[in-house]
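From the shared-data thread, chain only:
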Amino acid sequence: MKLGVENIKLDIDFVRSQFPAFDNPLSRDWAFFENAGGSYVPKQVINKLNQFMIATKVQPYADYPMSKSAGDNMDISTKFFAEMINAKENEIIIGGSTSINLYVLSKALEYFIEPGDEIIVTNQDHEANISPWRRLTNSGAIIKEWSFNKDNYELDILDLKKIISKKTKIVAVTHCSNIIGSINNLKEIADLVHSVKGLLIGDGVSFAPHGFPDVKELGVDFYSFSLYKTYGPHLGLLYGKEDILKILPNQNHEFLDGKYPYTLNPGGPNHEELASLSGIFDYFNLIFKHHFGYSNSNNIRKKIQRVNSLISSYEEYIANIFLEYVSNKDDLKILGKNNIKNKNRAPTISLIHRNKSSKEFSNHLIKNKIATRNDNFYAWRCLKNLGIDNNDGVVRISMLHYNTKEEVLNLIDAIDSF
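Structure, as tokens:
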């Protein structure tokens, strides 16, 4: 019988053996549940970063060997990440962060905004995908807000249909809320936005850590996510359709005019961190080989899809243990769905304690070696809509595929002792 992904379970011990943090004296005794703020990094990324700094920390793309190697390794990372998300190499920008990438993109798109044009943003998003677009009122844009339902926390596409019009030029929406955890149907939203000849800007920061997306399948015009939340260094990736990138006004040095996608990356990428990104592919490729064996296929995207499914199944398993527990706790409130099924939400779980402040709750968990925090997590509009104090915020438990069932049970014990 040929084994499919449904027959294979994630080897959690093998996964954790790839992350030095689980052996480090400072971090090894902690259950790390602040992954939505930034993930741990596998040794493949660390080794490539170290090698670059030791042997090739020079200006890249010259003909001498250290410089040539530096440039080659930077290009390899770009190539791998393009294939991992089903994009062309000239359709991705590796910049300093998602916030920076979207701000630069907004300045480029501002050129096409005329007075009276409409831009739709949500109040479910991280601020990175809201404030750059709201600022375009300076160019005469009219901002409309697509608000989520306060009863079920969801963005209803019927509400989008009520406010979208032929004047809509941009719709900016999160693929997955970093507070609510809901997965929004970007493909359906893209079809609607394109029917009025608008552009869709998707924020995948809270989605990508749980499975790298196929941007062509989503149909988005632009898509961003943070590489430091997908097992890499502090960088952000921005995808854009080539036919749009080539007409955007240059935001970089004058001599780079017309040389997209560099036109949207002023100052260029961080060399050593970009070069280390191929270590993320190496890690995912190793996970594939360990679970599925050697493959003659050179189709990187198909390998990523199989690893995505493997990871999602495991994350669903451990997250549902916790979600079921919290659902039966009268003094805790979950923001969002109380069960994950077929990846309908991320294992990013925001909690409110009905009798204690989020700060008190978070401090108690930290005393019990549960690494988390209370905050608004830059989604202050979301919390404001729910009447939650932005200073105290929520306690967010965010899981990744290297978390264990034992850690989840320790988290439950810690909450029970509060």
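The mean pLDDT is 96.
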